[in-house]
Amino acid sequence: MGTINTENIILNKAKISKESYLDLEFSETIHVKGEDDKTDTITRDVMIKSNQLVHPDLIDAFNGLIWFMVDICELPNVKKDKDGSWGPYKVTGFVISGMDDQEGVVLIGQKKLAGNRVLNIITPFVKFENENEPYSNGLKLRHAIDTATDEVLAFINGKSTITQLELELDLDN
Fold it and tell me: Closest by alpha carbon to 138, among 151, 123, 152?
C-alpha cells in the first residue's frame, strides 16, 4: 500500500471502537487538472471504518487526552493509578471543529462502573484559544490533540498493529 499525502487532509473525527479498530472522518482537498489545463480544487468528505487494529502509539495518544476530559468535565478527585493508568477512565474519540481562533474539540470517553456498566462522557466544546472564556490548558490540549491527530494520520498511511493468524496443523497426515 502506498502512502497518502496527508498534507491535504483535515481530520474531523476519530474514534477507537471496542474492537480496537479506528473509525475516522476527514476532509481531503484534491487538485485535479481539467481539460483546459486549469487546476480545479475538489474537497471531499471521507469516512473510514477500518478493520485493522490500531497501533499502541495511537492508544497512548488517546490516553494522553484523558486528563483533559477529566479536567474539562470537572470530575472530582481523579488521579492516575500507581501503574500510571487513569483507572476506569478512557478517551474513545474526539471531534475537531471550527477554524482559526474558533477551532476546538469535543472529547468522547467512558468511565467503567461497577457491574460492567459504562458511563459515557462527552465534554462540552472547548476552543483551543478563547479570549472571552479561556480554558487554562487550551494550548496543552491543542498539543495533545495534535499528537493524537499525527497518530491517526500515521494510521491512514499504514501504521497499525499486525494481527497474527493461528493455523491448526494436522501433523499426523
Answer: 123
Q: Compute the distance between CA of residue 125 and CA of residue 147 in angstroms, rounded to an integer.
A: 19
Q: What is the pTM of this model?
A: 0.84
Burial of 161 (0-12, 13-18, 19+ CB in 10 A): middle
What would the pLDDT profile of 85-134 be if each residue is shown by its tens digit? Answer: 778 899 999 999 998 888 999 999 999 999 999 999 999 999 998 888 88
Q: Which residues pair with 25 in a beta bridge?
A: 13, 47
Q: What is the pLDDT of residues 22-46, one digit of tens each?
A: 999 999 888 888 777 788 888 899 9
